[in-house]
Amino acid sequence: MVFWEGYVSDEVMGIFAPIVVYWLYAGFYQSLPPMTLDKYRLHTRKEEDAKNIVPMRSAIKAVLVQQLVHATVSYLLFLVQSKTDLVGTHEIQPPLLVQIFQVIIAMFVLDIWQYFMHRYMHTNKFLYRHVHAQHHKLVAPYAIAAFYNHPMEGVFDTIGASIAFLVSGMTARTAIPFFCLIVVKTVDDHCGLWLPGNVFHMLFPNNTAFHDIHHQLHGSMYNFSQPFFPIWDKLLGTHIPYDLVKRPEGGFEVRVISKD
Asked: Which of 32, 157, 181, 191 is the most exposed place for a label (fewest CB within 10 A)?
């Protein structure tokens, strides 16, 4: 039994819950006092202003378009795949351990898609120039702009999540926490902060610092993995290690460790 049962279907929740979670989690980061965060920043506020050529208002508009793309593709997915209608009945759910196993499978499947699609968007000059370069206009990422992407990249991302959903065999109800996990992890990877006690930093080597390197000019052809594990970077030679060094004026600097 879940709180939305009898009001909306699992499919509807699977479409809209990730959108709500995005703004709640990104909004939490955005609401933290800037002065307090200075000792945890991977880029100073001055660096953020100098390096990011996109105003926040424009980034938020692009995020809303991205979420419209996600919602549309998710609706089509559920429309084709669902065994129920979109407003009432619910299918029988497997045991909890099965659902957990399905989520883990989906995480690995999504990572395969994201690594190779992400890497291809960097190596294909047309796709990089006309699609993926938009995301890299934010050299110093911040949470509320985590989904600042070209709409076509939104289609690619949602296809990857859809494939992971289908391959894992999960139900629409299990997909709700899985899709929300993708959103929260993506926001966290782009938050630009190395906060103490961050559970994602503890559980995943692919984290805020790992992804920050990819957003820098010297690291743009490394650390393609997202959003969960750096397996494919390590297997295919695109992983670049780093050190986190405290800056005298506060915060941290992510320094690449030479691979030589």
From this structure: 32
The confidence score (pLDDT) of residue 3 equals: 86
Q: Which residues contact 223 (CB under 8 A, 6 or more apart)?
A: 206, 210, 211, 213, 214, 230, 233, 238, 239, 240
Mapping DSSP to helix (H, G, I), strand (E, B) and coil, where does residue 256 land?
Answer: strand
> Longest Cα pair distance anywhere in the chain, in angstroms?
60
Token digits of residue 134 = 């938009």
Letter for the amino acid at 61?
A: K
Residue 108 makes CB contacts below 8 A (sequence gap 6+) with: 228, 229
**Whole-angstrom Cα distance, residue 96 to residue 102?**
10
72, two tokens: 């549309």
HSE value, Cβ hemisphere, 13 Å, CA-based, for 69? 20
pLDDT band at 257 (very low <50, low <70, confident <90, very high): confident
Q: What does the CA dihedral 209, 211, 217, 221 come to, rounded to 10 degrees?
A: 130
